[in-house]
Amino acid sequence: MTRRPPQYRRHVYQIDNRTGYSTYNSRLRPRRGRGEGVMWGCLFLGVLLCVGMCALTVVLTPIAFRQLSPEWQDRAARYLPVLRVFLPTEVPGVQALPTLDPARATAAAGFTIDLAGAPIATLAPGVTPSAVLGATPIGMPGIITMTPVTRPTATTAPLPANFYVPRAKRVAQLWNNCGPANLVQAMYVLGVDTRQEDTAAWLKPNTDDANVSPWQMAQYVNEQTGLRALVRTNGSIDLMKRLLYAGAGGILETGLIHKDDGSWLGHYVTLVGWDDLSAYFFGLDTFEENGSDGRGVRENYADLDQRWKHFNRVYLVIYPPEQATHIQDILGTAFDERQNHVEALEKAFLETQYNPNDMYAWFNIGTNLVALGRYEEAAIAYDKARYLGGGLPWRMMWYQFGPFKAYYMAGDYKTVLELANNVINSSKRIFIEEAYYYRGLASAAVGIRAQATSDLERTLQLNPNFAPAQSALAELRSGVIPVPETL
After folding, report:
1. What is the end-to-end Cα distance of the chain in Å, rounded?
2. Distance between CA 186 and CA 170 in Å, rounded?
3. Which of 58, 146, 177, 333 has a CA positioned 20 to 30 A from the CA of residue 113?
């Protein structure tokens, strides 16, 4: 009988033939072989290697992730949501608008505006606009009488209690593509199906461009499609319903609290319907979500209006050319651009009467005064907006550029440069070409020609389709100091 080696024997007990009892035989215990030791050694090294790789991954992943461009960071986080923990929680650089010096803040606090009699701003006794702005003003345009234009009043035909457009499609925006994606949604309502990559290629050739303004979207529609578009302010819930019901596409620009870090930013929403019973619009939101039933986010009328106020209640209307007369009838006096700003100024004024510390209403007063050519008053209204409520959101001038023109036209080039530098320094990962544009113009005004040329060239490098920079650079090269356009 062949005996197995001791390490393979199963029993360590044997029977004693003399006594009949089983006894323990230590020599029969199984012995560990060399192969088993090697196995356990390899297992230990494998575990050690896995732990080391995991630790290395935890250390290197955020470093490698943050070396990616902002666009690719966003794309990676969309596919692997766990990567969102490595997204920068804030934009590097300055994160507040420059504060006012005490004397200027005091003057801004005493600023009022009278629309009933002589519609011109008033200051605290003994204070002049040039003293407040600390510069030599270009000159006041004079008192502007707010006489309404003779256009028919907007239609007041009854509307249904609920409505939803026949065609609607949500488009999830790509990196920094809020404007182009909303434009695709609004044009789809009118039967034009295009891709956001196509609209973005013209509106923002550089993907890191953080802002597309309503006027740029309207320019795209009017020049690149067979549709028509216009931008107006002082919108209302009822007006947007009437435009939707007439078959137009409607986009609003509103304030939004970022869902990731709680900061304020500007955002577009495409309206596609309403429900009066629940008091909300259906809005296609390219950034957040599309509602539980896919029809759109429910935008409560009152909440939407408050966020819409952050942008002077601006809206973009898109319509077929054959509907132009009908759209004009719906808009009524708002169709005339100047009268539209007069009425928006009156609305903002009433909101300051209700709440004198409403910084957004004061900002809107400044924006409408700029549109009416009343730059010194506008500059002081912007001062007051910057003074109230602890200051405006630090991204405010990523999207709205009225203060640049107001301070420039009032001769306060120092503030233009200060604000432009603030925007540029607060957007290191992305860019706002308008800030370079206005810094270039202010640099030209104070005689720093090299900086002006560099900034305007930089603007066109970032966005070759930015027409105001094209004309400003041409004027500068011909020896003319360019004057900023209203953006």
Report:
1. 102
2. 10
3. 333
203: phi then psi, degrees, rounded to nearest 5: -70, -40
The tokens describing 392, both together, are: 């405006």
CB burial of residue 432 (10 Å; 0-12, 13-18, 19+)? buried
Which candidate, 459, 463, 431, 430, places its Cα nearest to that of 444? 459
Tokens linked to 478:
């011909």
pLDDT digits (tens, 9 = 90+) for 289-344: 777 788 889 999 999 999 999 999 999 999 999 999 999 999 999 999 999 999 99
Report the distance separating Cα 30 and Cα 339, nearest Å: 100
Q: Are 385 and 360 in contact (CB under 8 A)?
A: yes
Residue 219 pLDDT class (50, 70, 90 cuts) = very high
Query: Which residues 6+ apart lie within 8 Å of 426 measured at CB?
Result: 91, 93, 94, 95, 394, 395
Q: Which of 227, 177, 185 is nearest to 202 (CA)?
A: 177
Tokens of residue 279, six digits: 């008091």
pLDDT band at 114 (very low <50, low <70, confident <90, very high): low
If phi > 0 it is left, if psi is from -120 to 50 it is alpha, else beta; for residue 266 that is beta
CA distances from 394 to 126, 425, 449 (A): 32, 11, 29
pTM for this model (two decimals): 0.78
Under 8 Å between Cβ of 340 and 233: yes
Q: Report the DSSP pairing between strands 264-275 and 315-319.
A: unpaired
C-alpha angle 411/461/75, rounded to 5°?
Answer: 115
Distance CA 371, CA 249 (A): 25
